[in-house]
Amino acid sequence: MASGPLAGIRVLEFTQIIAGPVGCQHLADMGAEVIKVEPPEGEPWRLFSQFMPGESKTFQSLNRGKKSLVLRLQDPEAQDIIHRLIPSMDVVVSNYRPDVPAKLGIDYETVRKLRPDIVYVDNTAWGRQGPWSQRPGYDIVAQAVSGLMANEGKIDPNGAPGQITSTAIADFGTGLAIAWAVCAALFHREKTGEGQLIETTLLNTALYFLSTGAMDLPAADALKYQKMERVHALQEQHASYEEISTAYHAQTRATRAANIYYRTYETSDGAIAIGALSPTLWAKVRAAFGTDFLGMADPNYNVQDEAWMAVARAKVAEVEEIVRGKSTAWWIEHLEKNGVPAGPVNFVEDMLADPQSIANGIPVQVEHPLSGPQTQVGPVLKMSGTPLSVQGPSPILGQHSFELAQEAGLTADQIADLVARGILA
């Protein structure tokens, strides 16, 4: 029996890849019954780097605790099964291209006729209005269009912008937004009896992550306007992307060159990160490093003053050399004694065995019926009254198709006929 704050809530999921699946996985971790509708071949993420037929690590990591219903949705008989199930559902989540749901009979207008108080999430790349409304989009494109990629400032060896490769940041952020929105809409429905349409987009999520950078504040943005004038002029001159990026990041790089307080450092055997964002902590950093360099605490701080910057670069280089002289473990202990927030630069592959992760219950053990035992990152939050828990592994393709077809009222003969014709699997 499912447990958690959403126990008893039923979710019908029409999503693929990352944003929609991870949003629905959050709902499953909260105890909701999530039914993932897949095409006969399985959703694309099942097929990405398969380690056994129909199973990939990426799919298993984003779809735990769900049921799998395999239907060829282009067929009216498959749509009929969905329409029979919808009255018993509380939530529908879709992340198809904007023109697809109506063709499949699963758009909001169709669904709410069958369940008037449905909570319906419509996730798209760019939103349903505007010149890009019908375009498909993936995380890498959302990174590019939103400014995330340019803001990162990476240039690959061929002179092109480097993407954020550590995670699909717009996708995973949108997954959190989906789960948050569903919970808010269910709370609203509990108070009023009303369902509603929720719209989420990769573009909006990515821009929100850039919040301060995207914000326009004339009283404070004179330097920003100067920077963008230069950038736009270079674009009109057909300058290389590397030239444009250098102009865009010139001031930021100058600021970083004078920074000893909020950054990473190489040690004798690895690297550390420190985070000091107050005058009190700045003083502790200077004490720990044994330097008199004030950096951003200097009343004369001015990254546009080349004489000041020359001294700053030399002082920062001295600090960097000091840090390289000792090990990561030595620096973490030393900085902790001095009250400086700091940590080692770890590799994610080590983190589920990390004592801090284990002490806080972050790793969870899951047993998959085909691939066996695995350790995953558990639910993203804790609740004292309605604890979250992993409701099970990711489903085998079509694992629950027959039971859900029976729930929709189909007889054994009807199910066999649909299977024979490739509509149900």
Topology (SSEs and partners):
Blueprint lengths: L9 E5 L4 H11 L3 E6 L5 H4 L2 E3 L2 E2 H6 L3 E5 L5 H10 L5 E4 L5 H5 L3 H7 L4 E6 L14 H8 L1 H5 L16 H24 L3 E6 H8 L1 H4 L7 H15 L4 H17 L4 E5 L4 E5 L3 H11 L16 H19 L3 H10 L4 E3 L10 H5 L3 E6 L3 E6 L23 H7 L4 H9 L5
Parallel strand pairs: 1-2, 1-6, 2-5, 6-7, 7-8
Antiparallel strand pairs: 3-4, 9-10, 10-11, 12-13
Helix pairs in contact: 1-9, 7-10, 9-10, 12-13
Description:
The chain contains 19 helices and 13 strands. The protein has 425 residues and is an alpha/beta fold. The strands form four sheets. A six-stranded parallel beta sheet has the order 5-2-1-6-7-8, sandwiched between helices. Strands 9-10-11 form a three-stranded antiparallel beta sheet, with helices on one face. Strands 3-4 form a two-stranded antiparallel ribbon. Among the domains are: 10-209 and 395-420, Rossmann fold (3-Layer(aba) Sandwich); 218-255, no CATH class. A hairpin with a 2-residue loop joins β3 and β4. Helix content is 44%, strand content 15%. The protein has helices spanning 19-29, 44-47, 57-62, 76-85, 100-104, 108-114, 139-146, 148-152, 169-192, 202-209, 211-214, 222-236, 241-257, 279-289, 306-324, 328-337, 355-359, 401-407, 412-420, and strands at 10-14, 33-38, 50-52, 55-56, 66-70, 91-94, 119-124, 196-201, 262-266, 271-275, 342-344, 363-368, 372-377. It starts with 9 loop residues before the first strand and ends in a 5-residue tail after the last helix.
